Structure formats: structure tokens, C-alpha cells
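This section describes the prediction task in plain terms. A model, or a person checking by hand, is given the sequence of a single protein chain and must write out its three-dimensional structure as a string of C-alpha cells. No templates, partner chains or ligands are provided. The sample shown here is typical of the held-out split.
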Amino acid sequence: MPSSARPSVLQEIMTGTFTAGRFTEGTSALVSSLIRIGMIVLISALIMRVVSKLIDRLFQSRENEQRALIRDNRRLMTLRTVIKSLVRYAVYFIGGIMVLGELGVNTSGLVAGAGIAGVALGFGAQNLVRDVLTGFFILFEDQFAVGDYVSISGVSGVVEDIGLRVTKVRDFAGQLHVVPNGSINLVTNFRGRAMRVMFDVQVPYSTDVELAIRALQDAFDSHRESMPEIVDGPTVLGVQDLGDSGIALRVWATAQPMQQWSLERQLKLLVKKVFDNNDISVAYPHRYVIIDGQQNSADTGSVGPGLKSDRAS
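The expected answer:
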């Protein structure tokens, strides 16, 4: 049975059977394919332009909110770039497949091959895929931002850069730690609207506790204006503990983000000055050595005959 398949244009030219009608038909088909390809390219460019405008408008409102909260905008810029890239690659892939189909390429086999290659790449680069996906969700969920003090994967420090694959953290010793995003299981962010400052001050049992509390609170109130890091407080909460060597007075305050350590040092220095001005000593453990069976009261802190007293080392 003879084949009903029509010979190609090249075969007709070689055999001399190519006619003007065949030329007109091929030209019409070629022009029609070129028009469709042009329409595909035009629609793809239009889709990219519209989607890009929508993404910019969406993130512009978010950036205004972030500026109002004095947050870092690099996270939003990175996230916006990533979303634009994903949309662009998707549009390019679909448009490219449609263009190849217009050129007569069997795209079904190409799509199947791309799927197989994607699966192979996914198995071969599982850690890379995990890092990228985790980095995307870190940016999308705003778990932390550049400038935050965090603890991740056993590393504590200030975040210097957040990427899709790695996060860079610099500790207070100046060392830069590069942490793959896929290994981040727990994030502790120490940056908030107000960070707590709280510590205890030990005074001896012989001290007038009410006098000590009143002196500390008066000093805190008078120096509050000279400490711009303070958000609330400082306040002497009262007696926190009755220890072996003295009475613990708890001091509480809140500070601006990343200023809590500086404020704590300033308050402790102020406590020392207040105690010196009011003849209040800081409680410390005592050690008594009894000689010849003589013993003296440990509450008074005095040392009698035959008795030696030293601070505990």
C-alpha cells in the first residue's frame, strides 16, 4: 500500500516536483507561524510587565510599613527579587515551549525530559533545594532581619546578610559564621520593641532595706533622663531573695533593642555609686576560722580575739 505521507519541501525541490502553489502554501504557513510566535512573545512580555508592576505595588506598601517600624528593607527587596525571578522563569519556560511547538518541535518529549531532569536534579541536590526553600520561608515569614541579634544553630550574633542559601552571622568576637539555611531548626531572636534588663543587688542583713530601696529608686528617677536607652523603669521591685550572705534586691527596666547590655552596665555603676554615697556595703560571703575554741557572731561581721575572717575566694 503506498504511503499517503506528503513529501517535504526539501524533497520536492531535490526531485524537481516543487511547484509555485506549494511555495505559496509554505510561505503562508511560515508567515502564520511567525505571527503566532510574535503574539506569544508579545503576550509573555505583557504578562511579565503586569506581574512585575503588581509585585512592586504589593511590596511598596509593605516597605512603607517596615519603614514605620524602623525595620530592615533588604529582606523585602530580596523577597521581591526572588518572586520576580520565579515568575519570569515560569513565563519564559511556558513561552519557550509554545514557540518550539510552533516551529514543529515535539514538545511533549521535551517536557517529559525536563521533568525527569528536574527529578534527578532534586535527588542530586537535596541539600541545595532544602537551603533555598528554607531561605525563602525565612524571608517570607520575617523570622529575623539584618541587624537583629539572634541565636541559630548554636551561633549567637548580629545578622549581617540573609540569602536564599545561607545566613551570615557575626558574633561579638568579630568572627563571621556562615550558616546554611537548611540547617536552621530553631531561631531565637533577641530583638524586640523593648528588651528586658533585670539583675539582683546583694546587701548585708545589717542594712536598712527600706533605706537602700528608697536610695536606689531616687537615684534611678533622677538619672532616667540621662539614659536615652531606657524605655521603661528602672524600678526596684523589692526583696527578691534571702540568701546565705545577704538580701537580694531586684532591679528591673526595659531598654531599646540592642541596648540592654549597655543599660545594665550603666545601672550597675549607678548602684555602686549610690551605695558608696549612703555607706551601704555589698554583701559578700564570709569565712570564719575558729582558734582555741572561741567563736564570734557571724551576723555582725566583726572579728574577736583568736578569730580570723576572710572573704571567700
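For orientation: The helical segments are 9-15, 20-68, 74-102, 107-124, 126-141, 209-223, 260-277.
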